[in-house]
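ARCHIVE CARD
Drawer: 12
Card no.: 0347
Subject: one protein chain, sequence and derived structure
Cross-reference: see card 0346
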Amino acid sequence: MTELYALIRPASSYADQDTGVPFRVKLNPCPFDGYYWIGGPGGQYRHSDLILFVKDGDEFIKCRAYAANGEREQIIRMMLTEIQTESELGYFYPDEIESWVNQQRKQLSKILKIAKANRQEDI
């Protein structure tokens, strides 16, 4: 069986626990609280908190969180659809959604600026 290892994402609220050395994790297939991964300094983590690796000899190989074939966009669409449904059911205050939208807009604008600055045109 493949052994999985992880580092804590720098953007995670648990980032201060990261030692810089990948730690062994195992999957909790039926969590009740969203903590799918067991192991490491904090003992349990959500998928969004970790960068996963497999070990090949002495080398750690990063596992992609999504496939390059458009799965990233599908995940974003699914998340937005869920937020829309919850909004339609009245689960959010308009000010809460407006604040969240503004945060995402800032992040996306930053990403676009970085992409424009770093994109190398094909010669």
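Annotation on reverse: The two ends are 44 Å apart (CA to CA). Strands lie at 4-8, 23-27, 37-39, 43-45, 50-56, 59-62.
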